[in-house]
Design brief:
69% of the residues lie in helices and 0% in strands. By secondary structure, it is mostly helical. The N and C termini lie far apart (142 Å).
């Protein structure tokens, strides 16, 4: 590795290509939810909350791939690299999905072939395996060392991480009914399955007695952290911090499921409380209402049958 100065929080250099890519992504999003939506009347205006979620995802990508975290992970600390990968795979993709309206993506899956491929890739088993197999294999020393030595390979790895992470989050956060989310019970099982790769790789890195990545062993020391302690810290981030994050996701899904069931039960109870009426039949009238009902009285109008009584009365004038 090249000779590097000691790490500094202020001496980092940005990547113009990365900035251009993030600006392009943000620009396409704004173009889609703004002028294109209005011109073709695709949908109502996107809620500000959804726009904020999308740009929060963009901001996390910028933090992960630019600035001090990028320099730490690329040149100094394995543990910083693991934190960067958490930003790329656990934090940013869910925000990007939650911030993207389904109608904006629908034209992309309109071709039948694209829809079939998308339906296959976003199925629970392919989505689970695609990301976790790639994530596990990328930490084999022979592959990991190559990504650190070749910048182009490293960029390709990050793009693959981001793409497969979006796919692996899709069964939980899909914005498209054509590629639907899993039912809540299956979502819980799916999240549980997501923990295995981080657990296995993280536990191995934490407990192995030797440094697996020579690149970081030769890097300048930062804050007095030894290479083996740096590797253990990275393993703990993957194992414990990643597992805690998925536990949080598991809990959120469980409570959303419980809330959804409560709403359904309340709606069913309200429907049962309403009287059932056959089509064409009048509504049932309570007995108390029948007993107290009186015909309306119109002021100045004769009672029914009054004319018969008047005509039947004797004419006493003739007796005189």
């Amino acid at each position: 590795m090249p000779n590097l100065p000691e790490f500094s929080w202020t001496s980092w250099h940005g990547d113009p290509t990365l900035r251009a890519g993030l600006l392009l992504l943000a620009g396409l999003y704004l173009l889609g939810i703004g002028p294109i939506r209005r011109r073709y009347r695709l949908a109502a205006a996107v809620e500000p909350r959804q726009v904020a979620l999308f740009f929060s995802g963009i901001a996390l990508l910028f933090v992960a791939l630019e600035g001090p975290l990028h320099d730490l992970s690329d040149h100094y600390l394995f543990s910083a690299h693991m934190l960067q990968h958490m930003f790329l795979t656990l934090f940013a993709p869910p925000l990007l999905l939650l911030g993207t309206p389904g109608w904006l993506l629908r034209p992309l899956i309109r071709p039948p072939l694209v829809r079939r491929v998308a339906r296959t890739l976003t199925g629970p088993l392919p989505a689970l395996l695609l990301f976790n197999v790639l994530f596990t294999m990328s930490h084999f020393p022979v592959f990991y060392q190559k990504t650190l030595e070749d910048h182009n390979v490293h960029v390709a790895e990050h793009l693959l991480f981001l793409a497969t992470a979006v796919i692996t989050w899709w069964p939980l956060l899909s914005p498209l009914p054509e590629l639907p989310r899993l039912a809540y019970p299956l979502q819980l099982l799916y999240v549980f399955g997501q923990t295995f790769s981080g657990f296995l790789v993280g536990a191995f890195l934490t407990n192995t007695p030797r440094v697996l990545y020579p690149y970081y062993a030769a890097a300048p020391r930062v804050w007095g952290i030894s290479p083996i302690d740096d590797q253990r810290l990275g393993g703990l981030l993957m194992w414990v911090a990643g597992g805690t994050f998925f536990l949080l996701v598991f809990s959120v899904i469980f409570f959303v499921w419980a809330h959804h069931d409560q709403l359904e039960n309340d709606a069913a109870a309200a429907a049962d409380a309403r009287p059932s009426v056959r089509p064409g039949l009048p509504l049932p009238v309570p007995r108390s209402a029948v007993a107290t009902a009186r015909p309306p009285t119109i002021v100045g109008a004769p009672l029914p049958g009054a004319h018969h009584v008047v005509q039947a009365a004797p004419d006493n004038s003739r007796l005189n």
